[in-house]
Design goal:
By secondary structure, this protein is mainly α. The chain has helices at residues 2-16, 19-39, 58-68, 86-91, 104-109, 125-153, 157-162, 178-209, 212-217, 222-252, 260-282, 288-305, 318-323, 328-342, 350-374; strands at residues 47-53, 73-75, 96-100, 117-120. Strand 1 (47-53), helix 3 (58-68) and strand 2 (73-75) form a beta-alpha-beta unit. Helix 8 (178-209) runs antiparallel to helix 10 (222-252) and helix 8 (178-209) packs across helix 14 (328-342). The model is unreliable at 160-164 (pLDDT under 50).
């Protein structure tokens, strides 16, 4: 332990001589969280909606009010010519169009099914799908409220009592805000990148300066060298994690509902896996430029694409689903979302914790073997 501590102290002195590098390790994760947190958002608000009301009855105006009062849609300019929505869509003046036919109010008054038409700009498929879901939900709510008023006017209180009503309740994220889903993923994404790059660049920088050979001839074991190089960055990464969690609570309202101790243990396991991956990369790369490129390739792409951060794993081809089992972020995100959003403990996630341990040990073993083989 004295030898490991000596290497850790030496590494901290090197880090302190480069305050910009230390600032990046502490400040860059929070900065990335802010940028990605505000930039990556799947919620739809104030979508420009143009309306062509051919009915001009109280019922049609009531339907329009239901859409614009929801906050999901904002009133856009009407088309210059009736039915000419192409120009509005092409210019970006509207992203959706609601067409109310001339018989809308008459059909409702006569008890017949009234139809309306929606047009959506599908160039942004995610926004269009989300907007279609909002529109259907708004129409269902409007229909239910109108039916209830009609039955009350007809003296159908008993019929109303016998109707089946649905009262949906969403747990853990009642407002269905995408930030509550994205922020934990961003935390795992950012921590993996910083953990891999910090250790990989640190070791390769010593190789370039020629100081790594001095450690190789010192009376130190391979595991002692790796542990000493890792400990300072573990402390810095945990401090960066605290900054990220504080930023997530202040800016996005995403707080930790579970135990901070469980979150700490899971984060340490996850960071150790990232450090071991960075150490393995440092045994391959000879320059910092190559180490940076390999670190980005090994950390950013798998964490972004194969962890379930943005894209559901169940929708991927089978060979990608199998490959995702080798990505530590997949298991950490499941634990993180459970602790942060659901308030659970580590007990339900024993499989994910065990897999993180196995992946970290495998990466550490590969890194130690390559270090020992190369004599550094």
């Amino acid at each position: 332990m004295r030898k490991i501590w000596a290497i850790a102290v030496k590494e901290m002195r090197q880090i302190s001589r480069d305050p910009l590098f230390l600032l990046m390790l502490l400040g860059l994760p929070a900065f990335m969280l802010v940028v990605f947190g505000f930039a990556v958002n799947f919620d739809v608000w104030d979508l420009p909606l143009t309306v062509e009301d051919r009915d001009l009855t109280p019922a049609s105006r009531e339907l329009q009010a239901a859409f614009f009062n929801s906050g999901r849609f904002a009133r856009a300019a009407a088309p210059a010519d009736p039915g000419d929505f192409h120009r509005l869509f092409q210019s970006g003046g509207a992203r959706a169009a609601l067409i109310i036919p001339q018989t809308f109010g008459t059909d409702l008054a006569a008890g017949r099914t009234a139809q309306v038409q929606f047009l959506f700009d599908g160039t942004d498929a995610n926004t269009a799908n989300t907007a279609i879901g909002y529109a259907n939900a708004l129409l269902q709510t409007w229909n239910a409220e109108r039916l209830a008023r009609t039955l009350r006017k007809a003296g159908g209180d008993r019929v109303l009592d016998a109707m089946i009503t649905v009262e949906p309740r969403v747990w853990y994220n009642p407002e269905l805000r995408s930030s509550h889903f994205l922020v934990p993923g961003l935390i795992g994404f950012i921590l993996m990148i910083t953990a891999v790059l910090s250790t990989a660049l640190s070791v390769v920088r010593e190789k370039e300066r020629g100081t790594m050979e001095q450690l190789g001839v010192a009376p130190l074991g391979t595991v002692q060298i790796l542990a000493g190089k890792t400990l300072p960055y573990l402390g810095i990464s945990l401090a960066a994690t605290a900054i990220i969690l504080a930023s997530a609570r202040l800016l996005f309202g995403v707080s930790v509902r579970g135990s901070y101790l469980d979150l700490f243990l899971a984060t340490v396991l996850y960071l150790l896996g990232g450090f071991c991956m960075g150490l393995l990369i440092s045994t391959i790369a000879r320059t910092q430029a190559v180490a940076f490129q390999l670190g980005i390739l090994a950390s950013m792409l798998p964490t972004l694409l194969l962890s379930g951060f943005v894209f559901p794993i169940r929708n991927m081809p089978l060979f990608l689903q199998a490959l995702s089992h080798l990505v530590p972020a997949r298991y950490y995100l499941e634990i993180l979302r459970g602790i942060m959003l659901k308030g659970t403990t580590l007990a339900p996630y024993w499989h994910q914790v065990g897999t993180l341990v196995l992946l970290s040990l495998a990466l550490l073993s590969l890194a130690a073997l390559r270090f020992a083989r190369k004599g550094v």
